[in-house]
Backbone:
C-alpha cells in the first residue's frame, strides 16, 4: 500500500498549494478530503485544469461556474453532474475511468469496503478524487479553520480578499497536523500563500518557501 | 407531335414563405402577414399586399401601411422543410423535377405532355396533384426555357395556367423590366442608358454586351433574348434514411419500446454507413394512442451509434420517470429522421484511436445513459445580473448558446464571484440590534444597520461586516417579469461571506463566498 502511494505520479497543482498539500502536490490515485470551502476545492481543481486536464464535479449543484472560470478552471474541460442522487458512487466510478481529477460531495455514507474498492480503481486509473465530505481512509484531509475577509466594513466597502488558515492532516508521513495561511482569493483573484504575521509563524510550522517567480508568471499571463 | 427539348413547365406557389409559416404556426393565410429579414419585408400575404406592403419595404413603413400586420421572422429552413412533401408529390407524378427555390419547381415539358396528352392536360394534372397536398392557388407557366416559363407562371391572372407557344417566348418576355435578369446596380445603369425592358436589352449586340458587362451580362442577355442555355437539371431525390416503426399493440413501457426498436436503430445507422455517412443530429417523433405527438431534435458531439439512438428515444420518453415506469399513453408510432449527416471521412478515427477526448466522451455518455440526458452538463457563462442567470448549463452533446456575458451588464457583481451559487435561494433572517427584521424602503434606505444573521430557522449569529443595499432593477417596463431587489454582502461570525438579496417577499441568500 505504502509503496503504491509513494510511486504514484504528481498531478500539476496550483503553486499556492505546494506548501499546503502533503508532499507538495496532488498525487494520482489518492483521495483528498476538502472540508468547508468550495474555493479551496476550486484551487485544487485549477492546477490540473490549467495544465489541460479534464476535471469533473459531481453532486454539487451550487458549484459556482463563474467563480470557477475566474479562478482558472477551463470551462471547456469542466464536466458537472449536479444531481447524481443515490447512484453517486457509480457515477464517481464512471467519471474516474475517464477524467483525471474528480470532485464529489457524497450524497450518503460510504462503508470502508466500498471506499477501498473505489480507491483501488482510482489507483489503477491514476485518478485523483477530491471529496467535499466524509471518506473513510482518505490520504489527506484539508479543512479551512478560520477565514477572514478584507475589504468589507460595517456599512461600506465590498469583499476584496480573504485569508484563511488551512489545516492539513494525513496518513503515513503526514500524520502531523500542519496549518498554513493562504490568500483564498487575493485581491486580484489569485491564490497565494499569505505573508505570515508576527507571532503566527512561531505557532505553526511553515513549509519551505514556494517559487515566487512561478506565481508571478501565473498572475501575469 | 414534336416538342423542343427546351420546353419547360414551371410550377409556382405564390407567397410560399407566408403559406409555409401559416401551415406551421396555424395562422390564417388570408390575414395580413409579413415576413422580415434584416428589418426589411421579405414576403407578405395577399391581404398585406392590398394594404400596400411590398417586398423590400422597411418594417416600420409596412406596419404604418397595414396596422393589423402580423410580423414574423423569415425562416429559410422552415420554407424548404414545408415544401419538401410537395416536391415529393410532384416527383411521384412527374419525374425529373428541379427545385428552383422553395415554392418554385421546374421540369421538362416533353415527358408529361406526351404522357398526359398535351401541355394543358399535364398542367392540370400537376395542379390537381399539388392541390391534393393542400397547396391551393398554385400557378403553372409553360414556355421555352425555365426563365420564360417562370415569367409565364407569374403573369397568369385568373386562369392558373399560362402557356407561351413554342418560339414566342422572346416576344413574351420582351416587355418585362430589365431588372429581372440583372443585379440591381446593373439594372440602374441600364435604365440610365435608356434600356428599360428585356426586349430593348436583347436588341443590343451580344458582343457589345459581353464587352461592357462581362460573362454575367452575356448570360443575362441570352436570357432576355430567350436563348437561354439552361436546361432543367432534375434533382436526385435524396436517399431515404428515416426509420419508422408502428407498434401494434401499442407499447406503454420504455424498455419494451427501446428493445423493439433495437433492430430498427441498427438498420437506420447501417443504411447511412453504407453510403459512407454518419449522423450527427437527428429528430425523433413519437405518436401516442391518444393522438399526442412529441418531437425533438438531438445532437451528438461525435456521431450516433445504434445504442445512442436508443438512448435518445429513452430520454425523450422518460421526461421525469425512470426506465421501468409505464408511460402516460402507449406509443403507436416512432419515427427517427436524420437532420445532420456528414461524410465518414471527416469522422475517421486515428490509427491509434481518437485520443483522450474520445475516451471522455464515452465515459460521459455512460453516465448520461445512467442518469438521463440533462444530468451531465458542461457550463458556460451567460449574461445577466442575477448569478443564477449567469450560469448556463448545457447538457453534454448539445450546442452551447451564444455568449452574452461580454456585454457590460451594469448592476452585476464586481470581479469576485461567489464559489457557491444556490439554485434555490435560501430563506434567511437579517435582524437589527433590537431583533427586528431589517427593511429597505422605496428609496433604498435601510431601517437599521444589520447586527444578527440566521440561515433558515437557525440561531442568529452576529454580523461582522456588511455593505448594501445595492439595488438591481430589471425589466421595469414589463409588469410580469419586473424585478426589483436589493443586494447585500455580509460576513458572518464564522468569517463566511454571503451575498444576500432582499425582495418583496423577504430576505434570501443568493450565494455564499466559501
Residues:
Amino acid at each position: 500500500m505504502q509503496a503504491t502511494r509513494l510511486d504514484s505520479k504528481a498531478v500539476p497543482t496550483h503553486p499556492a498549494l505546494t506548501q499546503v498539500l502533503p508532499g507538495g502536490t496532488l498525487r494520482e490515485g489518492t483521495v483528498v478530503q476538502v472540508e468547508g470551502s468550495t474555493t479551496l476545492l476550486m484551487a485544487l481543481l485549477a492546477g490540473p485544469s490549467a495544465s489541460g486536464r479534464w476535471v469533473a464535479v459531481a453532486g454539487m449543484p451550487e458549484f459556482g461556474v463563474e467563480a470557477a472560470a475566474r479562478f482558472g478552471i477551463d470551462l471547456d474541460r469542466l464536466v458537472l453532474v449536479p444531481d447524481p442522487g443515490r447512484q453517486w458512487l457509480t457515477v464517481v466510478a464512471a467519471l474516474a475511468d475517464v477524467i483525471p481529477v474528480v470532485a464529489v460531495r457524497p450524497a450518503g455514507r460510504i462503508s470502508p469496503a466500498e471506499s477501498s474498492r473505489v480507491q483501488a480503481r482510482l489507483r489503477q486509473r491514476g485518478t485523483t478524487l477530491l471529496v467535499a465530505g466524509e471518506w473513510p481512509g482518505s490520504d489527506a484531509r484539508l479543512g479551512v479553520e478560520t477565514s477572514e475577509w478584507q475589504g468589507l466594513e460595517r456599512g461600506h466597502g465590498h469583499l476584496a480578499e480573504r485569508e484563511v488558515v488551512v489545516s492539513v492532516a494525513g496518513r503515513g508521513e503526514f500524520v502531523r497536523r500542519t496549518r498554513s495561511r493562504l490568500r483564498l482569493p487575493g485581491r486580484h483573484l489569485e491564490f497565494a500563500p499569505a505573508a505570515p504575521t508576527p507571532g503566527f509563524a512561531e505557532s505553526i510550522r511553515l513549509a519551505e518557501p514556494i517559487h515566487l517567480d512561478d506565481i508571478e508568471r501565473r498572475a501575469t499571463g | 407531335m414534336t416538342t423542343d427539348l427546351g420546353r419547360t413547365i414551371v410550377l409556382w406557389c405564390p407567397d410560399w414563405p407566408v403559406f409555409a409559416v401559416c401551415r406551421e404556426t396555424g395562422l390564417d393565410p388570408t390575414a395580413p402577414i409579413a415576413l422580415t429579414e434584416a428589418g426589411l419585408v421579405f414576403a407578405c400575404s395577399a391581404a398585406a399586399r392590398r394594404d400596400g406592403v411590398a417586398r423590400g419595404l422597411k418594417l416600420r413603413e409596412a406596419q404604418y401601411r397595414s396596422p393589423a400586420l402580423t410580423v414574423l421572422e423569415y425562416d429559410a429552413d422552415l420554407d424548404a422543410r414545408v415544401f419538401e412533401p410537395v416536391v415529393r408529390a410532384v416527383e411521384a407524378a412527374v419525374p425529373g423535377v428541379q427545385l428552383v427555390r422553395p415554392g418554385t419547381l421546374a421540369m421538362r415539358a416533353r415527358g408529361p405532355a406526351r404522357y398526359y396528352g398535351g401541355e394543358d392536360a399535364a398542367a392540370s394534372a400537376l395542379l390537381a396533384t399539388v392541390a391534393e397536398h393542400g397547396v391551393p392557388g398554385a400557378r403553372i407557366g409553360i414556355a421555352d426555357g425555365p426563365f420564360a416559363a417562370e415569367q409565364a407562371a407569374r403573369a397568369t391572372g385568373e386562369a392558373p395556367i399560362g402557356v407561351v407557344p413554342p418560339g414566342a417566348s422572346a416576344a413574351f418576355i420582351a416587355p418585362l423590366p430589365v431588372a429581372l435578369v440583372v443585379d440591381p446596380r446593373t439594372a440602374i445603369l441600364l435604365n440610365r442608358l435608356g434600356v428599360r425592358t428585356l426586349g430593348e436589352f436583347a436588341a443590343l449586340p451580344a458582343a457589345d454586351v459581353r464587352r461592357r458587362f462581362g460573362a454575367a451580362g452575356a448570360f443575362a442577355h441570352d436570357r432576355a433574348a430567350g436563348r437561354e442555355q439552361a436546361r432543367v437539371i432534375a434533382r436526385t431525390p435524396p436517399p431515404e434514411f428515416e426509420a419508422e416503426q408502428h407498434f401494434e399493440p401499442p407499447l406503454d413501457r420504455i424498455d419494451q419500446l427501446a428493445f423493439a426498436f433495437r433492430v430498427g436503430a441498427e438498420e437506420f445507422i447501417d443504411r447511412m454507413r453504407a453510403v459512407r455517412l454518419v449522423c450527427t443530429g437527428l429528430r425523433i417523433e413519437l405518436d401516442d394512442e391518444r393522438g399526442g405527438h412529441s418531437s425533438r431534435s438531438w445532437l451528438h458531439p461525435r456521431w450516433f451509434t445504434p445504442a445512442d439512438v436508443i438512448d435518445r428515444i429513452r430520454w425523450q420518453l422518460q421526461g421525469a420517470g425512470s426506465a421501468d415506469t409505464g408511460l402516460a399513453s402507449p406509443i403507436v408510432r416512432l419515427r427517427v429522421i436524420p437532420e445532420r449527416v456528414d461524410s465518414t471521412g471527416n469522422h475517421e478515427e486515428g490509427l491509434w484511436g481518437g485520443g483522450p477526448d474520445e475516451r471522455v466522451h464515452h465515459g460521459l455518455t455512460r453516465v448520461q445513459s445512467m442518469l438521463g440526458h440533462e444530468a451531465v452538463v458542461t457550463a458556460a457563462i451567460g449574461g445577466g445580473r442575477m448569478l443564477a442567470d449567469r450560469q448556463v448549463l448545457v447538457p453534454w452533446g448539445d450546442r452551447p448558446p451564444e455568449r452574452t456575458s461580454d456585454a457590460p451588464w451594469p448592476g452585476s457583481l464586481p470581479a469576485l464571484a461567489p464559489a457557491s451559487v444556490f439554485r434555490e435561494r435560501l430563506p434567511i433572517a437579517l435582524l437589527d440590534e433590537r431583533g427586528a427584521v431589517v427593511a429597505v424602503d422605496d428609496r433604498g434606505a435601510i431601517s437599521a444597520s444589520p447586527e444578527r444573521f440566521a440561515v433558515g430557522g437557525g440561531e442568529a449569529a452576529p454580523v461582522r461586516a456588511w455593505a448594501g443595499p445595492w439595488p438591481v432593477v430589471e425589466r421595469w417596463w414589463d409588469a410580469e417579469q419586473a424585478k426589483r431587489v436589493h443586494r447585500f454582502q455580509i460576513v458572518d461570525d464564522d468569517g463566511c461571506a454571503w451575498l444576500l438579496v432582499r425582495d418583496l417577499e423577504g430576505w434570501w441568500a443568493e450565494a455564499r463566498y466559501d
